[in-house]
Amino acid sequence: MTSKFHAGLIKDISSILNDADDFNVTIKVGEYENTKEFQAHSVILRARCPYFKTAPSKGRITKKNNKMEFDKPNITPTVFEMVLKYIYTGELDLEKYPDENILELLVASDELLLEELFIHVQDYLIEKKADWIQNNFVTVLHTVFKLKGCEKLQVYCLGSICLDPLPFITSKKFPLLDKEILYGLIKRDDFPVEEGEVWDCLIKWGIEQTPGLGKKNSDRTKWSNANFQALKNTLNRFIPLIRFKEFSPAEYFDKIRPYKAIIPNNIYDEIEEFYLKSTQPKTIILTPRIKFKVEIESKLVKRRLANIIASWIERTNENSLSYKYKFEVLYRSSQDGLNINTFRTKCNGQGRCIVLVKHQQSAKIYGGYNPLGFYNYSGQWCTTVESFIFSFENSDDIQNMKISRVNTSHTNYAIYEQNVNGFNFGSSFYLQSNLYVYFNHSGYYDNNINNVLSPYLYNNFVPAEIEIFKISSY
Question: What CATH number has the domain spanning 6-136?
Fold first, then answer.
């Protein structure tokens, strides 16, 4: 049997980063005032980093006084210090560094061919820095779309924008967005923005991107034919992505008609004939985008998921919702306290509600639809055929959501109301007076309950967050 002493080996190798005196590599990083020289060992660099292994054959080094020298001005000292710590110790605590440095580390690990580190940093940004990404979408997008292996983060960013796009497309940085990123965004069917707003943002972006236009020449009434032609050239690829059938007649008159000169003749003829004669177009046949019809301010789910919940209430798909909805928060445990009396005071008698619960040890969101509302009953089963229980893998999940509706044979056990407890969906998903959330397969909801409550079926936990929303429709 072979004995293994890995812990001691790693400790000894790690120590030579700071204590050794036999360095044979000098690496100068940064530029201008922010530069620094690092000392390292070629044997360790070659063993741990493919970039340095191939450097001699690609002419990336110079030699001076029997030492190899590298010059990496595009990597900052802070980031390269992180890289060296990873190379020598196999350890790196990203929580100690500013978010901007972590994004820079992603770029550096890609350039230095550190695949393991690259994957880890990408996952870390998605899992731990979602809020920062959302607040810095343009910077992050322009960075990650230059990296070939960064598809996961690219998809995540575009998907996150589509969950709540208005703050992004109305931001001051939106007109600076790279054209390829904008193209990928506007062509998506799940870009849930009213088409008139898409058009407004596209025109604004086009003006900013077109030579001779911009802030100093944004008044189209003063444009020359050359100005219109220049804007047409800028937006040529984007025009076929617009769902022109989704504009109202007033929007057609006010928004599209003034920009007739930038729209290809065959497309504009179809638009005009559609609005004047109701003739169905043959070219502009893109399907309508998914539209958000739910207004919600939640810490647990974004508008796209609220839209999905509304579609479950109506038993239809997202694009066919008959009503607009407002989900108004009645109770939030993080601000109101995890307390049954407070829960009941705020929620009783408010009508139909949505319950959302965040699990403590995972990103999972559980919830239920109570079409009857909460009442001050001392213990009573309530009948409904419309209640359901659901789960999302996380606050962005639109692929793995699951739903279990009340069993048609047990609709008289759909909801249990007892004023000393919280919500109770057929003793399958409920909040007890001890402030624990319980999961069971009682038989009162259909068999998909096993998937909905997985992996915590027949378990209980203290919730990290509970939100209760009153539902209004119009």
Answer: 3.30.710.10
